[in-house]
Amino acid sequence: MGTAPQNPVVNDPGLYDFRPYRDRHPIRWPGDKPIAVWISPNLEFYEIDPPANPFRKSWTKPHPDVVGYSHRDYANRVGHWRMAEVMERHGFKGTVSLSVALCQHHPEVVENANALGWEFFSHGIYNTRYTYGMDEAQERAIMEDSIRTVQEATGQRIRGWLAPALTHTTRTMDLLAEMGFTYTCDLYHDDQPGPVHVARGRLVSMPYSLEVNDHYGFAVYNMSPREYADTLIRQYERLAREGEASGTVMCIPLHSYLIGQPHRIGPFEEVLRHIAADGRAWITRAGDIAEHFLAHDYDAVAAETAHPAAE
Amino acid sequence: MSLDPSYLEYPRRRRGMDHDLYPWSNLFDRPAVSWPGGKGVAVCVVVSLEWFPLTPADKPFRAPGHMQTPFPDYRHYTSRDYGTRIGFYRLLDAFAAVGAKVSVAVNAAIAQRYPAVISEIIAAGHEIIAHSTDMNGTIAAGLEEEAERALIGTALDVLEQATGTRPAGWLSIARSQSWNTPRLLAEAGVRYMCDWVNDDLPYAMRTPAGDIMNVPLSHELSDRQIVNVLQQSADSYVRQIQDAYTWLDRESRTYGGRLLPLQVTPYILGLPYRIDAFDGLLRWLKDRDNSWFATGSEVVGATPR
């Protein structure tokens, strides 16, 4: 690995204003639903022998990391198809966090998601190529590659971003806005969309989730499948209640090599059944949430944050 | 700051996999598999029977479950041995109670040290597959090819001498392989390995020394993962396996046969406070109308090529 280059000392990243969870501008979702629910399947490709990034190792073991690699490969052979069938059965369209090289490796998976009416955003080229250490031209290059690759494979102009393996630079948000992205899934400070400070243009922070991400559920919090399902339902119930005052967002980020395992998919299906039957949810896609927020709420929220409560 | 330009080059960005070991395949697009008797779910139990030398080796890596305290780690040496002396016999009784034939992945050292246990496995009609020499026999990139070839050969030879049959199957410690392992196993005449966890059915890998089948022995469904790594109870383990069975059973009725692989460890599930739960799980699986207990070789034999 060698010695990693030094980063500058930055304390406040300056990404957004502090906005208390009190008396906020009332967001109203379509149909007067209190909560917008979106599912984000991560459709990924992990390389078996990626080059080293100076700041982060790809695999914990020497290549080939057979369990690490083949576990993730399970997604494209088995997990995706199982997960997609369950989502479709309950009327959930995915908003895909895509390793865009999947368009080359397994176009069958991408075509399936596109045919189901799923939206795509970029999750980098591979989940084994990180942004750490990139210069501006390099980071711009992976964004351009993402836009072009997904456009060619699906006809969709991507509007969202989740940095590959959540690796960022301090330029990422400015570049996204400049290149016509409207939302980022990289920031975890809120249960509602909000403006991100960017040099030019507008960029919305779209609530994604680490806490109810299946990766956290199963690999960080060591939950059983039924505990994870219960967690999602609690998350939903609370946010749906709070959304009566001002609309909330619940994202369920998934990795089908985890949720698509046979001991997990059954309990997960019960969550979808619950949310679909509840009736309070605007079951939608991230791009639709961003569009609605930009059209109806962005200016009001930005004006709120321009006048701190102290005035 | 910038990265070397090669970091933004992708020489293996192409259709299919980024290696040549096996082609991509969608489980749900394959011809439906039918297990013997028209059953839908092959329940394949693989027991890991391991001997951990008191002095652990760290090259290429230290095996999971190996010694942890400063030398001499009597705590873990004896706890692991408990599995072989006591826990394994509880498992054998549990298998006998439901008439299940299983595959036992055996360190060669077990055959040399404890021939009585080998005799009992054979007498019960279970399959013996190779599981390296002992728990210092780990494999990963960096292990010299000749050393790996010798390790594989020794493990197979010792088990063949002890049992009269050359093992058809192989499980690497921690499922860890080098770039050479599939080829060296095929070269040694191994018919199937259990290391790659990317499917719910066996499939073929291609090596310069010939084809070898991979039986995906899910680490996610193993007792080590659920009980030791994720720290869940035996009851939770049972519930999870039942949920997996229920899902695969339903899926098999539309898409054809599925594999439910259960890797179990004598010093984990063979403990007094856990074995009854596992015993109950086996009975529950036995009572399903769509289950088929099968060894690794039986599953491979019933998989169309």
From TrEMBL, chain A:
NodB homology domain boundaries: 80-183
Molecular-function GO term, any one: hydrolase activity, acting on carbon-nitrogen (but not peptide) bonds
Family listed: Belongs to the polysaccharide deacetylase family.
Entry's Gene Ontology BP terms: carbohydrate metabolic process
Gene3D superfamilies in the cross-refs: Glycoside hydrolase/deacetylase (3.20.20.370)
Provenance organism: Nitrospirillum viridazoti CBAmc
Protein name: Chitooligosaccharide deacetylase
Pfam families: Polysacc_deac_1
Residues annotated as transmembrane: none
Cited InterPro entries: Glyco_hydro/deAcase_b/a-brl, NODB_dom
Role played: Is involved in generating a small heat-stable compound (Nod), an acylated oligomer of N-acetylglucosamine, that stimulates mitosis in various plant protoplasts.
Source species, domain of life: Bacteria
UniProtKB/TrEMBL annotation, chain B:
Single GO BP term: carbohydrate metabolic process
Highest taxon above the source species: Bacteria
InterPro entries: Glyco_hydro/deAcase_b/a-brl, NODB_dom
GO molecular function terms listed in the Swiss-Prot or TrEMBL record: hydrolase activity, acting on carbon-nitrogen (but not peptide) bonds
Domain NodB homology residue range list: 82-192
Pfam name, any one: Polysacc_deac_1
PANTHER family: POLYSACCHARIDE DEACETYLASE (PTHR43123:SF4), POLYSACCHARIDE DEACETYLASE-RELATED (PTHR43123)
Family: Belongs to the polysaccharide deacetylase family.
Primary role: Is involved in generating a small heat-stable compound (Nod), an acylated oligomer of N-acetylglucosamine, that stimulates mitosis in various plant protoplasts.
Name assigned to this protein: Chitooligosaccharide deacetylase
Organism: Nitrospirillum viridazoti CBAmc
Taxonomic lineage of the native organism: Bacteria, Pseudomonadati, Pseudomonadota, Alphaproteobacteria, Rhodospirillales
